[in-house]
């Protein structure tokens, strides 16, 4: 087994079983990396990047997904520092660093001097999970969306992304790619919404899923519909649908300062199990 400095090397198809065993030490926190590995077989052409592994005594001890998103997997502070050293040698190619707070912080401290000033850093993001029925009655009108709903779903996705990230996903000519992503989620049965007549008043998507967990993204209620319990009942419905048909545990992460969203998730039954951090460029 050839490794580079500090036992780090890119993983490939032959490493898939070892990687999945590593990620599934915490299958909910690591759902994104598990999903990416399972759907790409760790082939770089499908990953759109690399999965780095750190080996200690010949055993895979930690990993790091390096694509559009850089995501540490089961990485201690020492692992994160080693991954940062490797990243410095190649320069920044990622748009986001996201994952467990300590690993992200250590990694960022290692590359900050060379990678330039981020657009935003969010250091306090509670990672929430629910592995039981929602604690409140779900909205019975929340359903999977179809391609016929795209004219309502797509603008809501753009509005949510812009509000959350601070820049439109359509910026710089990204509309076609983003529209394809929304259609992909609809086609997979991973897009959920509540309509009042023809008007969308709630939406959420599954970002990634494994047999162990599904991670929710894109929760959105139009401003004029907020404060009416729409998101709470809507999320209860999403939890019920996802747990019944996709995965037994539902997770998400939220900004610490988003008090209304945190209150809604708590009413549904989500509980904090970890802290994430995100650095965006």
TrEMBL record:
An MF annotation (GO) of this entry: acyltransferase activity
Pfam families given in the database record: Acetyltransf_1 (PF00583), DUF4081 (PF13312)
Record domain N-acetyltransferase: where: 140-281
EC number(s) stated in the UniProt entry for this protein: 2.3.1.-
SUPFAM superfamilies, sorted: Acyl-CoA N-acyltransferases (Nat)
Keyword entries, A-Z: Acyltransferase, Transferase
PROSITE patterns (alphabetical): GNAT
Coiled-coil stretches: none
PANTHER family: GCN5-RELATED N-ACETYLTRANSFERASE, N-ACETYLTRANSFERASE
Name used for this protein in its record: GNAT family N-acetyltransferase
């Amino acid at each position: 087994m050839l490794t580079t400095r500090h036992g780090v090397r890119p993983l490939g198809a032959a490493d898939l079983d070892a990687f999945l065993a590593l990620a599934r030490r915490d299958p909910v926190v690591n759902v994104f990396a598990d999903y990416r590995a399972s759907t790409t077989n760790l082939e770089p052409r499908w990953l759109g990047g690399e999965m780095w592994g750190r080996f200690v005594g010949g055993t895979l001890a930690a990993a790091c997904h390096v694509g559009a998103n850089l995501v540490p997997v089961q990485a201690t502070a020492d692992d994160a520092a080693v991954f940062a050293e490797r990243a410095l040698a190649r320069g920044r190619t990622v748009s986001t660093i996201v994952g467990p707070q300590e690993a992200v912080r250590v990694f960022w401290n290692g590359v900050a001097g060379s990678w330039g000033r981020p657009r935003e850093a969010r250091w306090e993001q509670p990672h929430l999970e629910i592995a039981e029925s929602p604690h409140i009655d779900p909205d019975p009108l929340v359903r999977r969306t179809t391609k016929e709903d795209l004219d309502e779903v797509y603008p809501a996705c753009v509005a949510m992304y812009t509000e959350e990230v601070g820049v439109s996903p359509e910026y710089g000519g990204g509309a076609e790619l983003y529209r394809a992503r929304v259609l992909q989620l609809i086609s997979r049965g991973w897009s959920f919404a509540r309509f009042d007549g023809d008007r969308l008043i709630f939406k959420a998507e599954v970002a990634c899923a494994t047999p162990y967990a599904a991670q929710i993204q894109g929760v959105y209620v139009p401003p004029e519909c907020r404060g009416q319990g729409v998101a709470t009942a809507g999320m209860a419905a999403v939890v019920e649908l996802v747990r019944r048909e996709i995965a037994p545990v539902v997770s998400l992460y939220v900004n610490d300062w988003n008090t209304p969203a945190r209150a809604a998730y708590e009413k549904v039954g989500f509980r904090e199990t970890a802290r994430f951090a995100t650095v965006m460029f």
